[in-house]
Structure formats: C-alpha cells, structure tokens
C-alpha cells in the first residue's frame, strides 16, 4: 500500500506565543499577532492557537483566553484556540466558563487544547497553584470534569458551568511525552504533540496514540497534529540568518537567562559554545529553515514519516514583515493543485 502523503492533504495552522521582540512591547506583539491571524485566515490556515506560559519576559500570551477573544473578535472564519491552556493551573469550572463564553461569542471557531505542564518554572507554578502544587496528577479527571461541564447532560447537576453547558468546544490533549499519548488515545480525543521543542518522543508517541486509540463521541479515528518550527525566506541563507533569533531564544530556555527576542546575527559562534549549540539543535530537531523549495522537501519528508493529519507551524522571527512572508511561503506549499491520477 502506498502511504505517500502530499502536503495538500494535510491541514496547516499556527502556534503563537505573542513573542516580545527587543525594542518593542507586549502591545506591539498583540498587534503583530492579529496581523498574522488576518493573513492566515485569508491564506486558508485551519487554526490559530496561543500557548499559556508565565514568568517569561519574551512571552506575552499569559492571559491566553483574552488573546483568543481578541483574535477571534477581529477575524471571521479561522478557528482560534489554546495550544494550550495548562489545565493544572486552573479550576476546570473557570476554564469551562471562559471557553463557554468564547464559544458563545464565536460559535464553531474555538478550540480548547489542554496541557498538564506548568508552563513555567516551579516557583511560578507554586505562585499559581498554591497548595494545589500537585494538580498535574489530576489531569485526566480534570479533563473529564470539563467534558461534563460542556455536556447538556450536566443540566441536572448541582454544579454547572454557564454559558458552557451544551456547547461543543473541541478538547485536544497536548503533549511532549508518551504519557499524553496514552491519555489522548484512551479518551478518544485529538492529539497535538509539541515536537517544536520536545522532538525525542514524537514518533513513539504517535505510534502509541494510534495503536491504543478508542473511538469516542468526540472522534471516530485518531487525529494527530504536530507542531514544528518553520522559517521560510527567499534563500536558504536568508532563512538561516532569520533563524538565529530562534536559536538565541532557545539558548535562554537552556540557560534560564531569558531575553526578549533578539535580532538575527551573521555568526552564532560568538554567542554559543559547542555544548550549547548541540543542546539547542537537539531541541530544534524538527525545524525547517530555508527557501520555499528547501522547506517543502523537509516538510514532505516529515509528513510521510509521521503521517500527521495537521502541521502547526511556529516561527520566532524578529522582523514582523519577515514573519508574515515566512508564513505566506509556508501556506503556498499546502495549496498546490491535487495531482490527477489515471
């Protein structure tokens, strides 16, 4: 059987952290996010997700539900959601109320991706969760409680979530390890993997998810979304230079010395040593930098190796215009005519 898959058979989407650039503000980042979302909607992207992180000066997507409302309120078709809400940071009732409100305002357009990580360091996690510091152990039960709050059957319960009750808000399980694969499969939910920073377990997690998947009222067959880093430009050299901003960002992740998104540089050898370079490249294993032709070849190989249903691209590019152009080039790869077979 030929399992070769074309890019135009795969959905394409965007993950945004509302990254704050050196010399700019969070307000600038929000404006740039909306401009990108408007372009994405016109270019046929399926969804635009924001990720919850905390205590990071270069990430402004902390109030994730608020940003989802901002983008959904200024677009008309594209799905907008979370990639994800870190559920142990929140009471399921509050998440249901927030996303029920969003789904009421923008029906049929809101996604709720859920993760179990803190989205920050342990100090910040304690500040968010207080005495509930081990809330991640309740992740499966918290998802089930959310499902109950969204269900019409919960109308007879003493504890109800308004205006969420009876609304269809798709829930996704997010993950960066095999634990999430087992859970998404058991619950019959779509699965989104964070291969843009945690590539090591991607193939194994997908295999587990597909092998163990149990059809549910939400999904009749496995659905896999993989997030990857994509930076496209006119030439491989230009894309490689733009990618140095992302590489500098990940140096901050590794060292804990986070900075605002830095301008690209001509020579990374002045910024990292061999050990740091190796660690950054390990984390960025599923990254596609280059001309449109180079990115196409890489993504085609990735799609055929993983058989994913959807690719979500994230791009930490310093120049907003270069970021818009990168996503334009990326989208064109998925809009090629379907080849005719005899």
From TrEMBL:
Top-rank taxon: Bacteria
Luciferase-like domain residues: 12-305
Classification via Pfam families: Bac_luciferase
GO molecular function, one term: oxidoreductase activity, acting on paired donors, with incorporation or reduction of molecular oxygen
Recorded GO CC terms: cytosol
InterPro entries recorded: Bact_Lucif_Oxidored, CmoO-like, Luciferase-like_dom, Luciferase-like_sf
Entry-linked Gene3D superfamilies: Luciferase-like domain (3.20.20.30)
Family in the record: To bacterial alkanal monooxygenase alpha and beta chains.
Cited NCBIfam families: oxido_grp_1
The name this protein goes by in its record: Luciferase-like monooxygenase
């Amino acid at each position: 059987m030929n399992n070769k898959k074309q890019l135009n058979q795969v959905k394409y989407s965007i993950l945004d952290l509302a990254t704050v650039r050196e010399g700019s503000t969070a307000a600038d980042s929000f404006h740039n996010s909306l401009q990108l979302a408007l372009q994405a909607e016109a270019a046929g992207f399926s969804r635009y997700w924001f990720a919850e992180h905390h205590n990071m000066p270069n990430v402004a997507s902390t109030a994730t539900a608020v940003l989802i409302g901002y983008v959904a309120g200024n677009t008309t078709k594209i799905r907008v959601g979370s990639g994800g809400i870190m559920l142990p940071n929140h009471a399921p009732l509050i998440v249901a109320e927030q996303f029920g409100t969003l789904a009421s305002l923008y029906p049929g357009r809101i996604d709720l991706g859920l993760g179990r990580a803190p989205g920050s360091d342990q100090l910040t996690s304690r500040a968010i969760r207080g005495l509930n510091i081990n809330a991640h152990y309740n992740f499966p039960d918290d998802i089930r409680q959310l499902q109950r709050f969204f269900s019409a059957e919960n109308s007879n319960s003493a504890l109800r979530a308004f205006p969420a009750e009876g609304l269809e808000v798709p829930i996704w399980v997010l993950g960066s390890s095999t634990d999430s694969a087992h859970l998404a499969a058991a619950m019959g939910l779509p699965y989104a993997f964070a291969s843009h920073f945690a590539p090591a377990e991607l193939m194994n997690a997908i295999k587990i998810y597909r092998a163990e998947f149990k059809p549910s009222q939400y999904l009749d067959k496995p659905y896999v979304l993989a997030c990857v880093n994509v930076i496209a430009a006119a030439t491989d050299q230009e894309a490689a230079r733009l990618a140095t901003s992302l590489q500098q960002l990940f140096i901050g992740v590794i060292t804990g010395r986070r900075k605002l998104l830095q301008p690209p540089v001509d020579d990374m050898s002045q910024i990292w040593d061999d050990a740091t370079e190796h660690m950054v490249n390990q984390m960025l294993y599923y990254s596609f930098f280059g001309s449109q032709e180079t990115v196409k070849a890489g993504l085609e190989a990735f799609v055929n190796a993983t058989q994913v249903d959807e690719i979500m691209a994230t791009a930490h590019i310093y120049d907003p215009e270069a970021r818009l152009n990168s996503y334009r080039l990326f989208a064109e790869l998925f809009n090629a005519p379907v080849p005719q077979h005899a």
